[in-house]
Write a structure and sequence with these properties.
Strand content: 15-25%
Structural class: alpha/beta
Radius of gyration: 23 Å
Distance between the termini: 52 Å
Strand order of the largest sheet: 5-6-8-7-11-14-12-13
Shape: globular
CATH superfamily of the largest domain: Zn peptidases
Oligomer: single chain
Order of helices and strands: HEHEEHEHHEEEHHEHEEHEEHEHHEHHH
CATH topology of the largest domain: Aminopeptidase
Largest sheet: 8 strands, mixed
Length: 469
């Protein structure tokens, strides 16, 4: 893998201006993806010791995991005693087929913009189109520049003319921390497209946009994503020059909560899970952190990845129960069920560490431990990072209502406490709404949550109401 990283570094400068239609120049002829039965953590270490590229995000003991191996690794794998099957005989054939299809694009047809995967500039252009088409509720925001000077951009969706910004819960949906996961920016863009199309047409969607602030960042890692189109289709990290021919930090190991642990991250700059030199050493993670810290009421976050069909909640670095454990379990299973109800696609839901394997320094843990936001990692469809384009819209269709449900939960549970009617304002209407619920013994009348409805709830509400947003 060190030799491969050195070769990739040499290609970087030579291919910076290469048009995407020519396809990635790093070839993987004879590389295989093998599905290995994992009986212990030692089996994973054995594969990584061969220099295998771990494709499965999550590796349950007693299950199987996917690794890409070079042709010269086959004899070592055969001699290791590990049980495996070949999932992909020749990785390069899949890359070649994908690139041929992209070169011969049919213009979209009935599926329009979502007919096939899109380069970074096409994603940025479509964000501009969406914002221009809904200027009252959408704007493109530039969070900052990547390590190579590309903008990290997002689409902010809210009605600034409705209510007060400080009263509104903020929701963040971000994708493509890992460059090779091409389905994730497409699902993020599908969500943006559907949110804007529903405004003024669907009352629930209109209320959601009026009363919350939603930021969708489809490509957190613009340098790595561009590199997958021009040079190496399966590149994972960003494009920091680590020196000595090594490139890249795994952005999803660079977050500043439980950073530096060796269970689920690595201090080796050649590793695909290299965590960087310090927490938030990378500008890409800094930008998402800074936006999140700037919000007066950050409520919820989803990190879109691929592949494997998982709905995961914190913690990733430890098997201990997280705060809000019951909320995570209830809401996570609601998300799973909503996804299932659309196209009968079954996702597995659970705590990341307990269900699968450790991740240290991940966004999953920082958004809970560092920002007190309820958050999930959603691993999307696929059995490979190269996914047929006819999966884009179905994957968007099943995930979008789950994202809407999550934002509606944030509105109901993370609005300013005194904003009882959730209209993003603190006024006398909130008092009337509360008193109506209190007089009728509705569950919301138990404002202090002590299990009974009495004058203590009135005092608690009035204190929250006086505090404003």
């Amino acid at each position: 893998m060190r030799f491969m990283s050195f070769i990739l570094g040499l290609f970087a400068a030579a291919t910076a201006a290469q048009p995407a239609a020519t396809g990635p120049v790093v070839r993987l002829d004879g590389y295989r993806v093998v599905r290995v039965e994992i009986e212990s953590a030692d089996d994973v270490e054995t594969m990584l010791g061969f220099g295998a590229d771990q494709w499965s995000h999550h590796i349950p003991v007693g299950g199987s995991a996917d690794f890409m191996i070079a042709p010269e690794m086959v004899d070592a794998l055969d001699g290791s005693g590990l049980v495996y099957e070949v999932a992909i005989e020749n990785v390069q054939e899949a890359v070649d087929a994908e690139n041929a299809r992209l070169r011969g694009g049919d213009g979209g047809g009935a599926r329009g913009w979502f007919a096939d995967f899109k380069r970074l500039d096409e994603i940025n252009d479509y964000m501009d189109v969406l914002a221009a088409g809904s200027p009252d509720i959408a704007e493109v925001v530039e969070l900052g520049m990547s390590i190579q000077g590309r903008p990290v951009r997002g689409l902010r969706i809210t009605n600034d003319a409705y209510g007060e910004a400080a009263c509104k819960p903020s929701v963040l949906y971000n994708a493509t921390q890992h460059a090779r996961e091409w389905i994730s920016p497409m699902v993020a863009m599908y969500a943006a497209d559907r949110l804007l199309a529903g405004y003024g047409v669907d009352q629930a969607m209109t209320d959601l946009v009026d009363r919350t602030e939603i930021l969708i960042v489809p490509v957190v890692n613009p340098d790595g994503y561009t590199y997958t189109w021009t040079t190496y289709r399966y590149w994972r990290k960003n494009r920091r020059n680590n020196g000595g021919g090594s490139y890249g930090v795994d952005l999803n190991r660079n977050w500043g909560y439980a950073w530096g642990n060796n269970n689920g991250s690595s201090g080796d700059k050649w590793s695909d899970i290299y965590r960087g030199t310090a927490p938030f050493s990378e500008p890409e993670t800094q930008h998402l952190r800074d936006w999140s810290n700037s919000r007066p009421r950050l409520a919820a976050q989803v990190d879109l990845h691929s592949y494997g069909q998982w709905v995961l909640w914190p913690w990733g670095y430890t098997g201990s129960q997280p705060p809000y454990a019951q909320t995570f379990a209830t809401l996570g299973n609601e998300i799973r069920q909503i996804i299932l109800s659309v196209h009968n696609r079954s996702y597995t839901a659970g705590q990341a560490y307990t269900l699968l394997y450790p991740v240290s320094g991940g966004a999953l843990d920082w958004f809970l431990g560092g920002a007190d936001a309820i958050n999930y990692t959603v691993e999307l469809r696929g059995s490979d990072f190269v996914l047929p384009p006819n999966q884009i819209i179905p994957n968007g269709e099943e995930v979008f209502p789950a994202l809407v449900h999550f934002a509606q939960w944030a509105l109901a549970n993370r609005s300013a406490p005194g904003d009882f009617n959730m209209d993003a304002k603190i006024d006398t209407l909130d008092v009337l709404s509360f008193l109506n619920a209190w007089n009728n013994n509705e569950p919301r009348g138990d404002f202090n949550g002590d299990g009974s409805i009495n004058t203590h709830d009135v005092l608690a509400f009035l204190n929250a109401w006086n505090a404003g947003c």
